[in-house]
Amino acid sequence: MQIGIDQLAFYTPQTYLDLTDLAHARDEDPDKYRIGIGQSEQAVIPVTQDAVTLAANAASQIIDQDNRQQIAMVLFGTESGIDNSKSAAVYLKRLLNLPDNLRTVELKQACYGATAGLQFAHDYVLLHPDKQVLVIGSDIARYGLNTPGEVTQGGGAVAMTITADPRLLILDDASAFHSEDIMDFWRPLYRREALVDGRYSENVYIDFFKAVWQDYQGQTGRSIADFTAFAFHLPFTKMGLKGLRAILPEATAAQQETLMQNFEASRSYNRRVGNLYTGSLYLSLRSLFDNATLHTGQRIGLFSYGSGAEGEFLSGTISPEFDSKSSQQWFEHFFASRKQLSVAEYEAVFNRQLPAHDVLLDTSDDDARFVLKGIQHDQRQYLDRSKKAVTDQ
């Protein structure tokens, strides 16, 4: 039975910062960001969006009357959860009007959470081929103003439906994974901004990638010659390039050229959005689908990494029903309609924090379908503009 990714959608707010402007404001050479880091723009997330609304705005693109009753689980990968007890998945379930007879679980292991959800979903659908699983990766990446990590901020959400006979990517059964207790990146409960040992984290990323790639090859007997492209977790896009370069010598000159071309296609969206944490790998995959020339049956490699640390290499083949035209059109419209913020405007948005008490937020500048309306009695209030009513949680 063939199981994999049937639909893959993305959402982030339309406000963004041009990193050339940020470089000038921080007295840096713009090429340090554009080339050295591999980023050109960065999504700016307003206080009226959180992990739940970002996920709802992404998932509402692929959940409709045709598949709503088939959804059996919502697996929500995030490291930007809004409650220490209640999962973001159950908030999302209500916003999407999903049936009551389903599981709603939040998954956390840094940027790896959505991949855990993908693998759990695969195994569930294998046993229940008439059902679908909604997998989410939704996060807001924050390091602070005037910090080394500022250029790798961003945010947004990906939403995937995992089904039998998928229309995008058929997952292979084999995968290789590796975990160690490593302090390369962490987010203590008392902090809103992440802590990271940047150079160490880069080295661990490469070490984990090489380890799982070798393990995968040992399991399957496959080599780099069996792959048309690789998609990477991209905290910044130069990181994925470093990963690919670690194994490029295994390929012929002709294949190296193809793999490099496809890598450029895979990082097109990420370099204009920034870091998505759990969603990063799957935005890269969406970018690959939309911007590379792919054919049915070609094999794609995926490297998922979550600091702390967990790495996994998995793979899949392009479905016979693969078609990226509608997604390409969505992204073209999205990028064309974005609103560029000045550095001062970006800093003002960044510094606007959600208070730890009841509040009514001004949502007039947020044109998303789902927004965070405020807090009442310590409960977040969500607005679905398609219903013009507040959803109380």
Characterization of the model:
Helix content is 34%, strand content 27%. Helix 4 links the parallel strand 4 and strand 5. It has a single domain, classed as 3-Layer(aba) Sandwich (Peroxisomal Thiolase, Chain A, domain 1), CATH 3.40.47.10. The strands form four sheets. It has a nine-stranded mixed beta sheet, sandwiched between helices. The protein has a four-stranded antiparallel beta sheet with strand order 15-16-17-18, covered by helices on one side. The relative contact order is 0.18. The protein is globular and about 60 Å long. This is Hydroxymethylglutaryl-CoA synthase. It comes from Secundilactobacillus folii.
In short:
By secondary structure, the chain is an alpha+beta fold. It has helices at residues 19-25, 30-37, 51-59, 88-95, 113-127, 198-220, 237-247, 253-266, 270-273, 280-291, 325-336, 343-351; strands spanning 3-11, 15-18, 41-43, 71-77, 103-107, 132-141, 154-164, 169-179, 185-186, 195-196, 229-232, 299-306, 310-318, 339-341, 359-360, 370-376, 379-384, 389-392.
CATH H-level superfamily title: Thiolase/Chalcone synthase
Strand percent estimate: 25-35%
State the CATH architecture: 3-Layer(aba) Sandwich
Distance between the termini: 39 Å
Order of helices and strands: EEHHEHEHEHEEEEEHEHHHHEEHEHEEEE
**Total number of domains:** 1
Contiguous low-pLDDT stretches (5 residues minimum) are 389-393
CATH fold title: Peroxisomal Thiolase, Chain A, domain 1
Q: Biggest sheet, in brief?
A: 9 strands, mixed
* Strand segment tally: 18
Question: What is the structural class?
Answer: alpha+beta
